[in-house]
Amino acid sequence: MIEFRNVTKYYDNGVLALDDVSFKIEKGEFVFIVGATGMGKSTLLKLIYREELPTKGEVIVGGVNIAKLRPHQVALLRRRLGVVFQDFKLLPNKTVYENVAFALEVMGYSNREIRTRVGRVLDIVGLLHKSNCYPSELSGGEQQRTSIARALVNNPVILIADEPTGNLDMATSWEIMEYFRRINARGTTIVMATHNKEIVNTMRKRVISLYKGRIVKDEYNGSYE
Amino acid sequence: MRIYSIAFILREAWKGLTRARISTFAAIGIIAFMLVLLGLVFYTFSIVRSTFTGIGEQLEIILYLKDNLRVEDREILKNRISAMEGVKEVRYVSKDEAWKRFKESFKGNKFVLEIMGKNPLPDSFEIKVESPEYVEILANSITSLPGVRDIDVPLEIARRINNLIGWIEFGGIVVVGVFIVVSLFVISNVIRLSFVSRIKELEIMQLVGATVFFIKGPFIFEGILCGFLGGILGVIVFNILVFILKKYVLSTFPLFSGFTSCDVINLSLSLILFGMVVGGIGSVIFLERHLKR
Ligand SMILES: Nc1ncnc2c1ncn2[C@@H]1O[C@H](COP(=O)(O)OP(=O)(O)OP(=O)(O)O)[C@@H](O)[C@H]1O
Ligand SMILES: [Mg+2]
Questions:
Q1: Residues with Cβ within 6 A of ligand 1?
Q2: For residue A221, is it left (φ>0), alpha (ψ between -120 and 50) or beta?
Q3: Residue A139, SS3?
């Protein structure tokens, strides 16, 4: 489903963010990407949804090399992914409801379909009562949950989550993780970057550890140390 | 699918516009202002031009006919001249009518009339032209026609008026051209700037998988809509100004009265169209500059 082949990523300013990274994630896996801050977790995820391109090596998603995609195909790829961004990336001039609906509108769903789907995910993340708020009127955790709702709303084949629980308390984090576990059991591949030791250690999933842009550990049934 | 898409783009454009950002209102106001200026400049030049063309239209070539010209030949000649390019009207003035007019104008002046004695005037045609630029060309081609004794051409005046109109047109094209370029620059930049606060929007739209069509559509529509509203506002102001100008300024100069014509309706429509096109251009510039590949 996702494959990195000797991927090296230099940013334009010369920073080496990923250094000769190779791994393979099969369909239906649940993978944690861990590592201290600045070790390259977000960069790795950005390469999957092609916000960044590798400097060297190849990134294969769903069988295609992302470097070879044309703009229209990039859009189609992103529609099959759900991404929870570390910085949320909510549209400031749209309400919670509109932000989530937007992901479906761009795909040309009917209004009725949009209403039911958006209602359902907002219920899951517990934000139904904030539907009509603008992002500036939300707490950090609420913004994060809006971002999660938007990532889930199109039933993605792959869910990419960058610190999705970074702003949430433990109880809410566990609710979200429980939901991730459910959709993973239904076949969604999940790649999640996190600092949250407790979650990683409790879930007992595959864990890829990054240190200064290199994979230092890749264990099934792994843990955070 | 498509229907939802189009509806989506229109809805997004409308939302964007009505989200009541100051920058949108500012943009509409500035567009209106530029269009009013453009309209007034164009209007002024076309008024001045039409005034001088109007004066030029009063010019007449007088063609004196040979004596004893047969009526048929005279008619043939008249038809031939009427068919020439630039001829507005050909009027036959018989020697008797000319004599009557002459006596009329020297009524009371026994001396002149006595000297003249019997009617010495020939038959003639009075030829009106469509515009002064034709005077010289027509004069040249008419003199050599059979049956013509002599012609009387207001050549000097025609030349001067032509010259003047030439300069007015040249000046008008230059000034209007400059104004068009300036408004193009100002309006497209105003539109672009009114979007700058939304660069993040472009990025997010791309990240959630919106195709270029979905991203660009609302912005371009909004730019066009903005240009349209600016155009409407500008045209309203422009027409009020023209009304005031006509009523209180132009009517006090007899020179302008009668000749002044400018197709204000067409000009207004052109201004609105111009606003829309340039609004669209502004959006496209914004998108080209900020949409990541
Ligand atoms: N757009 C960018 N331009 C230049 N350098 C960047 C850019 N994004 C990240 N970096 C650098 O690349 C390195 C890896 O960053 P990355 O965001 O992948 O870290 P991270 O593991 O996600 O950290 P965190 O846990 O704090 O989110 C860092 O040194 C960072 O400064
Ligand atoms: Mg990060």
A1: A 11, 13, 15, 17, 35, 37-43, 86
A2: left
A3: coil
Q: How many CB atoms lie within 10 A of CB B193?
A: 15
Which domains can be identified in chain B, with CATH numbers? Answer: 3-54+161-290 (no CATH), 60-153 (3.30.70.3040)
Q: How far is CA B252 from CA A91, B82, B246, B257, in A?
A: 59, 37, 9, 8
Indicate if the pLDDT at residue B1 is higher than 60. Answer: no
Tens digits of per-residue pLDDT, B119-170?
778 888 888 888 778 888 888 888 787 777 888 888 788 888 888 888 988 9
CB contact under 8 A, B209 and A90: no
CA atoms within 13 A on the CB side of A8: 8
CA–CA min distance B212, chain A (Å): 7
Nearest CB to B207: which of A51, A71, A107? A51
Question: A151 vs chain B: nearest CA distance in angstroms?
Answer: 8
Predicted confidence (pLDDT) per residue in A142-180, tens digit: 999 999 999 999 999 999 999 999 888 998 899 889 989
pLDDT of residue A100: 95
Cα B95 to Cα B166: distance, rounded to the nearest angstrom: 38
The ipTM estimated for the assembled molecules is 0.87
* Residue that the structure tokens 């052109």 belong to: B270
- A66 vs chain B: nearest CA distance in angstroms? 13
Which of A89, A93, A107 lies closest to B207 in CB terms? Answer: A89
**In whole angstroms, what is the distance from residue B21 CA to residue B7 CA?**
22
Q: Does B4 touch chain A if contact means CB atoms closer than 8 Å?
A: yes
Q: Does A109 touch chain B (CB under 8 A)?
A: yes
Q: Residue B186 has which token pair?
A: 């100002």
Strand segments, DSSP code E, in chain A are 2-10, 16-25, 30-34, 56-61, 64-65, 81-84, 158-162, 189-193, 206-211, 214-219
Instruction: Kindly state whether B20 is in contact with chain A, defined as any CB-CB distance less than 8 angstroms.
Output: no
CA atoms within 13 A on the CB side of B114: 4
Alpha-carbon distances of B195 from B28, B192, B247, rounded to whole Å: 13, 5, 41
Q: Two tokens at B203?
A: 């990025």
Q: Is A146 helix (H, G, I), strand (E, B) or coil?
A: helix
pLDDT band at B78 (very low <50, low <70, confident <90, very high): confident
Q: What is the pLDDT of residue B20?
A: 56
